[in-house]
Specification:
Helices cover 46% and strands 2% of the residues. It has 333 residues and is mostly helical. The protein is globular.
Length: 333
Amino acid sequence: MEGNPRGQTTPADLGARATLLVEKHAAYIKKVAETKDSLEAHLTEHLRLSGVYWGLTALYLMGQLHIVDGAAILDWVMKCQHASGGFGGSERNDPHILYTLSALQILALYDRLDLVNADQVVLYIKGLQQSDGSFAGDAWGEIDTRFSYCALSCCSLLNRLDAIDVPRAVDFLIACRNFDGGFGCTPGNESHAGQVFTCVAALSIADGLQHVDQDLLSWWLSERQTPSGGLCGRPEKLQDVCYSWWCLSALSILGRLHWIDQAALTQFILFCQDEHDGGISDRPEDMVDAFHTFFGVAALSLMGYAGLEPIDPVYALPVKVMQRIRQPKRQHS
């Protein structure tokens, strides 16, 4: 299809890309999941658990989760857990809080959070909290507000927020707030849409949204929309499909999803589809991947795109999954 390859403008007529190509995207995700010996598979092994979460959640939102072997996936996920309680990105990688959350999200999709020992997992997470309330990603000590979100989300999914120091975690998130209303990865770092999502969602879990300047931050987020209709992560940066989620989720949590042009963003996301082999890329005509495919589908879901399951903007899981988690537990046979 002809078009500006960098997506500076989005054509009105998208041709074959005018609608979400559900069957092609599902086939693409299934192919990626089943390809274990490619160069790409080896290069991304360290984050495979997150990749599986992206792919499975996209499938769930599109009503296609049944095309993959759930039992085999659950078996593999549990092989990625370490004695500490944390999960690695694959069987051969050290535990990290990012992949611990991905593991719990996958288990939640299949209603099998009962497979993990909640006490063991939260003990691992509790051990990563620092004296200032922040969380390290792993034993090596990197600090980032992403990890604060992961910690709060994990503990909330397991109904164990009592296991960590939530007030101190909130204090650290507040310290990462900037003059423009946004948030950085640590205190003093520039605002970034990805960090905005992690901080706003974390504060939502911690019942701390009163610490957000909601109008100022929503203005900053709405200013991320470019003439293409797509959203960028910081001022003067290119639009990218993944920021459709980072920006929209925060706006949704803040009740200001209507502050951006949703029709233009929808067109941009659809324009980034590969109409031949499936998948969604960061910008039109770039290579597709599972990461951008998930975040493109998730953003469309947030905007109420027809045929997609609704997604929870805080937990990045289908609304039905979160409703099920909040219901009284039942025993699995």
